[in-house]
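Reproducibility note. Readers wishing to regenerate the assembly model reported in the main text can use the exact inputs given here. Chain order matters: entities are listed in the order in which they were concatenated for prediction.
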Amino acid sequence: MKTPWELKVKPIRNGTVIDHISANKALRVLKILGLPSKETAVTLAMNVQSSQMGSKDIVKIEGRELASREVDEIALIAPYATINIIRNYEIVGKGKVNLLNEINSILNCSNPNCITNTDEPVTTRFTVLQKEPLILRCHYCERIMDQTEVQTQFRVF
Ligand SMILES: [Zn+2]
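Running the prediction on these inputs yields the following structure tokens for the assembly.
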């Protein structure tokens, strides 16, 4: 059975639907994807009722499929997100984000004295200690970063 929300929103022809985003994180997800932008139509639903999650956010992006790196980044914000690829109004691919055990180069270390924040050509590297809530440890300086800190350390921001 369709929910009233699904009836109200026009289906997209080609693009990506990101579902099961943790409630109120949709704007962060858009930021990771460099959206909104002039050319891309985005439909956003926040705090929608979900039988699995209580409430969730949904993002529909017209005319865009995600790179695997973008999917990895979304996992840091929305560990339960599902990715549906739409072509010609049909779902041609379904996937889940997958939080890796090691996060490389996406994030900056929050320790200003970390070697990755100097002029040395060292790429950042974090070990995932805990996925929910998120806790990471810098491979180089052992700084511990939690979810809140992670959100401010994205390279794209
Ligand atoms: Zn560090």
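We highlight two features of this model. Residues 68-77 form the longest helix (10 residues). The chain has a mean pLDDT of 89.
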